[in-house]
Amino acid sequence: MDFKMHEYTHAIVGKVTPALRLTDKADFNDARRQHDCYLRLLRELNVDVLEVDLAGTFPTNVVVEDIGIINHGIALLPRQLDSGEEYKMKKIREILKRELGQSIIEVADPDAKILGSDVLFTGR
């Protein structure tokens, strides 16, 4: 496929791990197959996929859409919602800064609440 997906260049995704079976009684093989299809589609769209082991329990070890809002080299990261997300935030912060060269801005106001999934980009 020769389609270029706007300006998207990278996708950070969590790995599907065997811990999935323990936490959600989900079919690990089916989840792995679906995840592999998802990754293959991203790669067919010329997106570089960074798959990260985020530990934790399913589905939070796979889902990363709430981690931040990234646009034009700037990553706005919300305050972590609970202590269970500390590891995930740390790993994503490292990748954004070290591997992707993003400038990190962290929301410090304790009353400010925003999630990455609160934002919808529709184009120009």
UniProtKB/TrEMBL annotation:
InterPro entries: DDAH-like
GO MF term list: amino acid binding; dimethylargininase activity
Keywords assigned by UniProt, alphabetized: Hydrolase
Domain of life where this protein originates: Eukaryota
Keyword Hydrolase: yes
GO biological process, one term: positive regulation of nitric oxide biosynthetic process
UniProt key word Hydrolase: yes
Similarity-based family: Belongs to the DDAH family.
The protein, known as: Uncharacterized protein
Organism: Pectinophora gossypiella (Cotton pink bollworm)
